[in-house]
Amino acid sequence: MCMATQTGARAYEVVDEAVTGRHDNFWDPRKQAAPEPTLAETNQKSQQGYALQDKRKMYKVDLSPDPKEVAAMEARRNQEKERQSQIFNVRTRLMGMDVEALNSQVEKQKLREATERSKEAAYGTNQVQYDLVAQLLDKEQAERTRRLAKKVQEYREQKQQLKNRCEFDLWDPDQLQNEFPAHLSDIGPHCGPASLQWFSGEDLYRATCLRMQQEQFRYSLERQLQEQQQAKADEKCADMLSDQLRLAMDMRATQLAKLEESCRVAMMSAMANANKAQAAELAERQHCEPQCEQEANLMEIQNQITRDLLTENPQVAQHPMAPHWVLPYCWKGMIPEQQPAIRRVQEAQHSEKEAQHQAEQALDAEWESQAMRSAQAAMELEEQERELCAEFRRGLGSFNQQLAKEQNAQQNYLNSIIYTNQPTAQYHLQFNTSSR
Q1: Distance between CA 166 and CA 391 in Å, rounded?
Q2: C-alpha 234: how far from its chain's center?
Q3: Cβ neighbours, 10 Å, residue 49
Q4: What does the buried/exposed string (b/e) look like for 56-72 if buried means 16 or more CB atoms within 10 Å of the residue's CB?
Q5: pLDDT tens digits, residue range 29-76?
Q6: Pfam families, per this entry (predicted)?
Q7: What CA–CA distances, in Å, run from 383 to 90, 281, 370, 390, 394?
Q8: How far apart are the first and last CA of the chain?
C-alpha cells in the first residue's frame, strides 16, 4: 500500500511539472542525493495530487484551436527552422559582411536617389508652368467677378430702388402728403368699394386693365429674353476667354521652346567658334614655335660668345657690392698671389686637426678603461643574482610540491565525495537548440 501511494504521488508530481512548466530532472553538480520521503510526507503529497487532479477535471474545457493562431504558430515554427538552418549549416553560413550585396545596395540607393532627383526636377518645371496658368486663371476669375459685381450693383441701383418695392406704401414717410383727398368726383380713381360709386357688373376700366396686363406681360417677357441673351453672351465670352487663355498658353509654351532651341543653337555656335579660335591659335603657336626656338638658340650662342663666361678675366668673379665676395658661376680659379695664403691656412688646419685627433684618442682610451671596470662589476652582480635565483627556485619547488599535494587531496575529496552525480546526455541536449 505504501509503495502504491508513493507511485501515485510521483505520477501527480510529474503531471504537475508538465502543467506548470517546472523541470527538476536536469543535473546540477551542486545538488546532493535527496533523502527518501517519510510515510507522512508521501500521504500528504498523495492527497495534494488527488486535489490537483480534481481541480483539473473541474476546469477542463474542450475547445477547438483557433485557425489563425495555428497558422501563426506554424509560420513562426517554419521561420525558426529556416533561421536555424542558416545559422547551424556551416556550408551556407556567411561570416562577416557580403561586400557584393552592400555594393549592390549602394548602387540601387544611388539609382533611386538619381531617379527621385529627376522626378523632382520635372515636377518643379511642371509646377512652375501650372503656377503661371493658375495666376492667369485667377486674374481672369477676379476680373470676371469684378464685372459681375459691377453689373449687380448697377442693377440694384436702377431696378431695386426703395420706391419700387411692393411694401413701400406701408412705411412711406410721405404717405399722408401723397394721398388723394377724400372726395373729388364720382368716378375718381381713388374711390374704393366703400365709396359706393359703382357696383358689380359695371367694370368701366376693363379694357385699360387688360392693356396694362398685356404691357406688363410683354415687359416681363422682354426682360427674360434680355437676361437669357445676356447669360448666353456671358457664357460665350467666358468660352472665348478660356480659348484665348489656352491659345496664349500654347503660344507661350511654343515661344519658350523656340527660345530654348535658339539658346541651345547659340551656345553650340559659340562653343564651335571658341573651339575654332583655340584650334587656330594652337596651329599658329605650333607654326611659330620652331622659328622662336631657333632665334632663342642663336641669341644664346651670341651671348655665350660675347660675355665674360668664356674669357679669362678674373675681375668678372668679383661681387659688385662686396669686393671680397666671389661669384661662383663666374670664378675662373685662383691667382698666383692667393695660392700661398691658401696653403698656409691648410697647414694650420691640418695641425689643429691632428691635435684634436690625439685628444679624442685619449678620451676613447679613458672610456674603454671605464667600460672594462663597469663590465667586471656587472659580472660580479650577475653571479650574486644567479646564486639568489637558485636559492629562490629551490624554495619555490618545495612550496609547489606541498601545494600540489594539498590540491590533489582536495580534488580527490571533491571527486569521491562532493561531485558524485555525473551529467547525462539529456543534460547536454538542452543547450544550443534555438537560434535566439
Answers
A1: 140
A2: 55
A3: 20
A4: eeeeeeeeeeeeeeeee
A5: 343 434 444 545 555 555 555 454 554 444 444 567 888 999 999 999
A6: RIB43A
A7: 59, 90, 20, 11, 17
A8: 48
State the pLDDT at residue 368: 92
**Better-predicted residue by pLDDT, 277 or 317:** 277
Question: Looking at residue 8, what is its pLDDT?
Answer: 44
How far, in Å, CA of 131 to CA of 137, rounded? 10
**Rounded Cα distance, 380 and 387, in Å:** 11
Residue 197 in this model has a pLDDT that exceeds 80? no
C-alpha distances out from residue 66 to 26, 71, 88, 93, 147, Å: 34, 9, 32, 36, 71
Residue with C-alpha cell 413701400? 168
Return the ∠ at Cα 356 (arms to 353 and 361), rounded to 5°. 125
Kindly state the average pLDDT of the residues 328-338.
Answer: 75
Say yes or no to pLDDT of 26 above 60.
no
pTM over 0.70: no
Residue 42's CB is within 10 A of a number of other CB atoms, namely 19
Contact 180, 190 (CB under 8 A): yes
Instruction: Give the three cell numbers for residue 94.
Output: 556567411
pLDDT of 23 higher than 50: no
Residue closest to 315 by CA, chosen among 336, 337, 330 = 330
Q: Name residue, grid cell 445676356.
A: 230
What span, in angstroms and rounded, lies between the C-alpha atoms of 296 and 304?
Answer: 12
Half-sphere exposure of 373 (CA within 13 A, CB side): 6
Contact (Cβ atoms closer than 8 angstroms) between residue 13 and residue 45: yes
Instruction: Annotate 332-364 with DSSP letters as a single string.
Output: ----TTHHHHHHHHHHHHHHHHHHHHHHHHHHH
How far apart CA 318 and CA 229 sit, in angstroms, is 115
* H-helix segments, 307-337: none
The CA distance from 71 to 77, in Å, is 10
DSSP summary character for residue 331? -
Q: What's the grid cell of residue 429?
A: 541536449
